[in-house]
Amino acid sequence: MSDMVMEDISPAEFRETAAAIEEQVGQVIVGQQEVVRHVLVCIIAGGHALLEGVPGLGKTMLIKTLADVLNLRFSRIQFTPDLMPADITGTDIFEDSEDGRSKVRTFLPGPIFANLVLADEINRAIPKTQSALLEAMQEHSVTVFGRTYQLEEPFFVLATQNPIEQEGTYPLPEAQLDRFLFKIDVLFPSSSELIEILARTTGGVQARAGLAAEGSQIIRMGALARKVPIATHVNEYVARLVVATHPESDGAPEMVRRYVRYGSSPRGAQAMILGAKVNALLDGRYNVAFEDVQAVAPASLRHRLLLNFEGQAEGVKPDDVIVELLKSVTTS
């Protein structure tokens, strides 16, 4: 797919396609509009997302529905403590040659070879196995026994984890967390949404989503988003936000100085700008506003802020820090 010549997509077609995707996802997923929007922004921007929420909120269903709606080759990897890197990337096997006189080495691809990979309960695997995703997420390739294999485009990793149950889990290394463009919190549904979920899931007819786009269209949408201009003063605002996440910075607000151990990497700024460009197009504008940056700031930064011991002890959340950050860092 990456070798195909892609025609430019218009901003109007961009919006129509995105609206069709959200509509079809809504045929299966009740509520969670903000979660669906952030996941869509993330994959149009060409990034990976980490979805965090308690079991039963439809995280896996959302990801599988997106694969159906976008006609993407889907693969699910259930992370467990005994999962090994080769179980993800694949491995070489030796088979008899055609004449039966020798052995031939053949690569057997693992489940990472898909367009949309669900890394379910990613924090249940040991760090060595978690790191098997790093090259794939960053380079869109896999190296096995010295040979590098390219992954088919588009390629996305959407991972899930449970924030409550910590027994038998292995927190993701900071380097791997940083590879996720967004971290998206999946919240419990409202009473009305729960009633609708029960109606859809306990009856005789199961809701189904229709096809709304192809992988090639997502690539074209991402290419258009990267062309959206961003003014110098908006770029400077993003830079000030990221610098202010570091407690030693002169512009850091009091909450950052008191509760944050390490601030965001430059990837946080890249995530905000890419996400803001997509958000602008979804709102029908071909320029990035401060509001677009602020709309994607929590998803871009919450997994890139490491709290210190005092922050953890007092129950401070990264989102609390981000709220204060957006209040204190001016747009001018």
Q: Number of domains in the coordinates?
A: 2
CATH superfamily of the largest domain: P-loop containing nucleotide triphosphate hydrolases
Strand order of the largest sheet: 2-5-8-1-9
Helix content: 40-55%
Let me know the largest β-sheet: 5 strands, parallel
The overall average pLDDT, rounded, is 89
Order of helices and strands: HHEHEHEEEHHEEEHEHHHHEHHEHH
Distance between the termini: 43 Å
The gyration radius over C-alpha positions equals 21 Å
Task: Please count the helical segments.
Answer: 15
Shape, per Cα inertia axes = globular
Q: What fraction of residues sit in β-strands?
A: 15-25%
The counted number of beta strands is 11
The CATH architecture of the largest domain comes to: 3-Layer(aba) Sandwich
CATH T-level topology of the largest domain: Rossmann fold
Poorly predicted spans = 1-5
CATH classification, class level of the largest domain = Alpha Beta
Determine the structural class based on helices, strands and strand pairing: alpha/beta
